[in-house]
Structure formats: structure tokens, C-alpha cells
Amino acid sequence: MITLKVLIEDTTFNPDLECEHGLSLYVETPTLKFIFDCGQSDLAWKNAEKLGVDLKKINFVVISHAHFDHAGGFPALTKFVKPKFIYTGRNFWQEKFSKTADGFKYRGAGFTFQDLARWKIEQKVCDDILQLDNDSWLIGNFQRWYKFETIPEKFVRGENKIADNFDDEICLVLREGDGVAVVVACSHVGILNIVSTVQKRLDLPIKSLIGGVHLLNASDERIEKTFDTLENLGVQSFKLCHCSGDKIRTKFSTGSFLEF
User: Fold this and answer.
1) Cα separation of 202 and 206, whole Å?
2) Which residue from 72, 52, 53, 51 is spatially nearest to 63, judged by alpha carbons?
3) Is the pLDDT of residue 48 over 60?
4) pTM to 2 decimals?
5) For 82-128, what is each residue's pLDDT tens digit?
6) What strand order describes the sheet that includes 24-28?
7) How many Å apart are CA 115 and CA 75, to the nearest integer?
8) Which of 51, 100, 109, 215 has its C-alpha lying 20 to 30 A from 161's C-alpha?
């Protein structure tokens, strides 16, 4: 059995738990215990204690991309445990910003490669596909088949503030029966591009989709087209949260605990 516990998310159904704009999940497979994303502060780790998650027992941390609401809580985690390594996608250390009316606002991870060295934590990079154990994989370098899945122009990166193509983004895939569940953080590269890439790389049916699909500002037409296509791709179950948007959250909202 595989278990997921939501450590932090934008909302909470439990009055005893904190929430913030961000995402962090505790993942347990038959052989591994790890964290997928870290939220933006230490709130995920306070919730972990309330949920009975022993952070000292985790094997490693996965960070889906270098935005503050997914990576910012990592330095606070090191006060509880110093994992031997973290998994990231390529180009994780390119600083991220968003365009605003007043200029550029920093949206990056909030820590550096030099910090990892100081903490004696090794970085491991997932380029395409990386198997963690018999029941879990990381996948990145997504192919961009669906041209209507555009990235908002406000997202930029690096010293020259070039358009961010989010080539650092990775997702988690977990075995679910004779198929898999895809766990996403923000789906900046497009949820259809992610799901299609996973399907082609693993050649397994995708039964569930969990996490954020970044459709909060999408048109009704794009939302309808996206979910029609997901259903055509065979996705049967949706547990969506974080940046998915109010319309989608109302229909497909996740709780604090999942198992399959």
C-alpha cells in the first residue's frame, strides 16, 4: 500500500492544521518514506507532528520546481532532519521571478547550492525518468505536445529575466494497481503535457491525478478542453488542490489523507 498525507496546502478541512499558499506531501511506499515539496515556511513541519509523521525517518526530499511555495520550507526542515539528498529537476538553481506593476518580485527557492553543501546534503537531478523503487518514479523533461497549454508571461528567470519554460519541473508517479497515479505540484508546463509524457515513458494506464494543475486563471474553454482530454487519456480519479483554481477545487478537492 502507498500512503500520501497532505502536510500543507492552500486550504484545510481540519481546524487543527495550518494552511498556506503552497504544497507539501508526505509519501510512504512499502520501502521508502519521503517528502514531495516543502511548502513555503515551517508550517508543513508543524502539521507533520500533528499528523503523526516522524520527519526523522524520511529517506529524502523531492522538490518539484524552484518556486518559493514548493521549495521555501526546505531550510526549516533541516532543523528536524538533514536528509542525505534531495531530488530536483535540471536547472533548479536558476533564480525565479514574476513580473509585477512595480518590477520583478523574487519567487525562488530561498536557498542555494552552497547551502546544500554546508548542510552536507547531496543534490540528485532527474533529467527524464528516475526510478526510486518498485512503486515510484520521478519524471521530468516533459514533451510539449499541447500548444494551448501556455505559460503566463509573468514568470521569468535568471539574471536576464528571460521567459521561464520551467524545464526544472518534475512530477512524482506512484504505482496504483495495474496502473499509476501522477502526483503534480503546479503543472506549469501543462498538465496534459505531463500526463502524456508519463504515459508514453512508462506505458502504463494513468488512473489518478493528484495535486495542482495551475488552471486558476484559465478560461472556461481551456478548462473544459483540458478535462475532456484527460478523460480521453484514461484518467479516472482527480484529487486536485493548491493552484488548480476555485472552479476545479470545488469539483475535485483533495482531503488530508490518501491511500492506494
Assistant:
1) 10
2) 72
3) yes
4) 0.96
5) 999 999 999 999 999 999 999 999 999 999 999 999 999 999 999 99
6) 122-126, 85-89, 60-62, 33-36, 24-28, 3-8, 257-259
7) 9
8) 215
68 vs 57: CA distance, rounded Å: 24
DSSP type of residue 151: P
C-alpha cell at 130: 528516475
- What's the rounded Cα separation, in Å, for the pair 24 and 31? 20
Residue 20 CA: distances (Å) to CA of 11, 28, 48, 120, 130: 7, 23, 14, 29, 30
Tell how strand 60-62 and strand 85-89 pair up.
parallel
Query: Left, alpha or beta for 25 (phi > 0: left; psi -120 to 50: alpha)?
Result: beta
Report residue 49 CA to chain centroid gap: 21
Say how many Å lie between the first and final Cα of the chain, rounded. 6
